[in-house]
Design a protein that fits this description.
Layout: E1 2-6, H1 11-22, E2 26-31, E3 45-49, H2 56-63, E4 68-71, H3 87-101, E5 105-109, H4 123-136, H5 138-152, E6 157-162, E7 165-167, E8 176-179, E9 188-190, H6 191-203, E10 210-215
Parallel strand pairs: 1-2, 1-4, 2-3, 4-5, 5-6, 6-10, 7-9
Antiparallel strand pairs: 8-10
Helix pairs in contact: 1-6, 2-3, 3-5
Length: about 220
């Protein structure tokens, strides 16, 4: 497949690029600073610099002729307090550009706290831990919620991957999935496995138009 990867210089994004190349896909890695990509040159890798991800016109050239779009912008973007939203505006631009060039498949990273609470996690987690987390990172989660709303209202074939805390661990392929919800007791997952889930969603019909909770 021919893929465009947004957030390619982040921890999850780099894993997506590496795994996609290993799987013989052609990859366009969209970055602001090519020096941060830190992925070896490859004959099937094109690095595209885009300064303003909220500009749909700027995204059209990197999406034209692609089979699918993957976004790792939600995997740790804008964790600083009161940071300007990035993921929501970028997603609106992606969807507009995808419509113009006829790309139908989209797989993105969100976060577990944006999804529903899990009754099995217990009253303390649901009444204390999660509200504190959502308050501390409210700007990030509000941005991700805008992203999810835009995607759900679109006519593309989308997948939203919702991981809990991200760890710098390679792909194992051994993690739990909950379609339409979050993983009970899910506390963390390696960035390599988040990338694996993003790519798996492109080929598996079960992931189509679905939010998927993942965790080890």
């Amino acid at each position: 497949m021919k893929l465009t990867v947004f957030g390619a210089s982040g921890g999850v994004g780099r894993e997506v690029v590496r795994q996609a190349l290993d799987a013989d896909h052609e990859v366009t890695a969209v970055v602001r600073d090519p020096a941060r990509l830190r992925v070896p040159a490859h004959p099937r890798l094109l690095v595209a610099t885009v300064g303003d991800l909220s500009d749909a016109e700027a995204l059209v050239p990197v999406l034209a002729g692609r089979d699918a779009v993957l976004s790792a912008l939600g995997a740790g973007t804008n964790k600083k307090a009161k940071a300007a939203p990035v993921t929501g505006p970028a997603t609106h631009a992606m969807l507009t550009a995808m419509g113009r060039v006829g790309v139908r498949r989209l797989s993105v990273v969100s976060a577990a706290p944006v999804g529903p609470d899990v009754p099995e996690d217990g009253a303390f987690t649901r009444a204390v831990v999660l509200p504190l987390l959502r308050r501390a990172l409210r700007d990030l989660y509000a941005d991700l919620a805008v992203m999810e709303e835009a995607i759900a209202a679109s006519d593309v074939d989308w997948t939203v991957i919702r991981p809990p805390r991200l760890l710098n661990r390679p792909r194992t392929g051994r993690y739990r999935r909950v379609f339409g919800g979050n993983v009970p007791g899910g506390r963390s997952i390696g960035r390599g496995d988040v990338a694996d889930a993003l790519l798996a969603g492109l080929a598996d019909p079960a992931y189509a138009r679905c939010a998927v909770g993942i965790a080890t």
